[in-house]
Amino acid sequence: MAARGASRALRNSVKQLTAAPVVQRRTFVAAVGAARAGITAAPKAAVSTPFQQTRGVKTIDFAGTKETVFEREDWPRERLLEYFKDDTLALIGYGSQGHGQGLNLRDNGLNVIIGVRKNGASWKEAEQDGWIPGKNLFEIDEAISKSTIVMNLLSDAAQSETWPAIKPQLTKGKTLYFSHGFSPVFKDLTKVDVPTDIDVILVAPKGSGRTVRTLFREGRGINSSVAVYQDVTGKAEEKAVALGVAVGSGYLYKTTFEKEVYSDLYGERGCLMGGIHGMFLAQYEVLRERGHSPSEAFNETVEEATQSLYPLIGQNGMDYMYAACSTTARRGAIDWSKRFKDTLKPVFNDLYDAVRDGTETKRSLEYNSRPDYREAYQKEMDEIAGLEIWRAGKAVRSLRPENQK
Ligand SMILES: NC(=O)c1ccc[n+]([C@@H]2O[C@H](COP(=O)([O-])OP(=O)(O)OC[C@H]3O[C@@H](n4cnc5c(N)ncnc54)[C@H](OP(=O)(O)O)[C@@H]3O)[C@@H](O)[C@H]2O)c1
After folding, report:
1. Could you give the angle at the alpha carbon of 345 between the alpha carbons of 328 and 187, nearest 5°?
2. Ligand 1, atom 37: nearest CA belongs to which residue?
3. Strand-pair partners of 178
4. Which GO terms describe its cellular component (predicted)?
């Protein structure tokens, strides 16, 4: 076993750290206390970071690099209502983001309408969420015609597919909003060439639309990227930040459309999803080939990671997680991390190149535009669910106390 059970590790680490310097001890013990109480320490780090405030913009020092961050506090609800009092926001598409951002805008009291195709699943889902046909739920063209701000939250493939019909409706004076830089940045492939006489802005929540909604309802906010592609009015950035807060962001990190789409495609193919899945599979397969049982292979690969160690990294960082593990585990992990980094870095460079040169976009557009896309995707999901590792995981999870009836 590479690391100990979470509670024992934490107990022992507290003991070890009583001899550590004051600053480290205070941080660790406070975090352990919070972890025991089930408190997530998320916003604290940002709050305690030194910052300068100039007219609602904060310059925060991220490990030696100063970056611009906008904060929800600067846009209280009354200010949002005043700012958007003459606007109609047409939110086109009602997938995960449409649902989260749309309901948050509605709860914030803004004049928001939904535009989706009448025969699609989204129309029914919107109705279930209380959007009323003819009042604030329309077909896409009608919603755009009534709006001043068009929030394009169709799937990325659909943004490309519908562009010939949508573009002529984006007349001077309207604002075009995206939650991903994908369509305009890869315009050679997507054909989304935005009109030159309108503001084009982006707010990209760093999480699922379901989380956008949940955090908003909890009175918190999701972290989002914010960017301007085209500023015709001179107000594009301010509008983007205000919209970002209105859809449920807590903090908005300033970036560009290019940087947002490159980092997003890269991250999800790497550590967030593809890379981590590949690491899990490789480690699990070797354990199984060397004679370990499915439960042992799963527990040492996934369960301990997701249930014990990764949450510790999320709470207080990598050194905090190391501190919670045995000296044996620490020594080996520090040594092997260097070899993994050196081995994987060329793969990450290949990945970044494939993202930047449009290879990944081309693949995504081709695959996701196929008429049999949903069936093909379901087949792949069934294959993943059927892998021994994830079947073993199902059995392991069934033994968790909360799953025992
Ligand atoms: N999901 C996330 O976690 C996330 C996070 C940050 C940013 N984003 C970005 O947010 C945007 C929206 O993503 P999403 O995940 O919320 O939505 P999605 O699930 O990718 O897209 C769903 C919407 O697209 C519509 N649609 C699909 N094909 C269509 C077509 N041919 N014509 C008209 N409508 C069509 C669907 O309507 P029907 O029901 O009628 O098919 C549905 O309303 C994307 O740019 C995405 O990259 C997503």
Report:
1. 140
2. 122
3. 152, 202
4. mitochondrial matrix
CA of residue 148 relative to chain centroid, distance: 27
Q: What residue's CA is closest to ligand 1, atom 47?
A: 180
**DSSP secondary structure string for all residues of 197-261:** TSEEEEEEESS-HHHHHHHHHTT--EEEEEEEEE-SSS-HHHHHHHHHHHTTEEEEEE--HHHHH
Catalytic one among 99, 180, 277, 292? Answer: 180
Alpha-carbon gap, residue 95 to 126, rounded angstroms: 9
Find out whether 205 and 249 touch, Cβ atoms under 8 Å.
yes
Burial class (CB in 10 A: 0-12, 13-18, 19+), 335: exposed
180 catalytic, yes or no? yes
Task: Please state the residue numbers annotated as binding site.
Answer: 264, 268, 300, 304, 326
Predicted confidence (pLDDT) per residue in 362-389, tens digit = 999 998 888 898 899 999 999 999 999 9
Cβ proximity of 171 and 146 under 8 Å? no
| Contacts (Cβ under 8 Å, ≥6 apart) of 172 | 195, 197, 198
Alpha-carbon span 299 to 306, nearest angstrom: 10
DSSP type of residue 63: T
Concatenate the DSSP letters of all residues of 301-330 into one string. Answer: IIIHIIIIIHHHHHHH-HHHHHHTS-HHHH
Q: Could you report the per-residue pLDDT of 49-103, keeping only the tens digit for each?
A: 333 434 457 888 999 999 989 999 999 999 999 999 999 999 999 999 999 999 9
Quick one: tokens of 284?
């699990």
Strand order of the β-sheet with 51-54 is 51-54, 57-62, 65-71, 249-254, 222-230, 199-205, 175-178, 149-152, 89-92, 112-115, 137-138
Instruction: Please give the helix or strand (H or E) that residue 391 lies within, else none.
Output: helix 388-398
- The string over 365-386, giving b where at least 16 C-beta atoms fall within 10 Å of a residue's C-beta and e elsewhere, is beebeeeeeeeeeeeeeeeeee
Q: Classify burial at 327, counting beta carbons within 10 Å of its beta carbon; exposed 0-12, middle 13-18, buried 19 or more.
A: exposed
- Between the CA of 61 and the centroid of ligand 1 the distance, in Å, is 35
95 touches 155 (CB < 8 A)? yes
| Cβ(137)–Cβ(131) below 8 Å | yes
Which residue, by CA, sits nearest to atom 17 of ligand 1?
A: 95
CA distances from 176 to 170, 199, 278, 324, 403 (A): 8, 6, 37, 48, 46
Measured between alpha carbons, how far apart are the two ends of the chain, in Å? Answer: 29
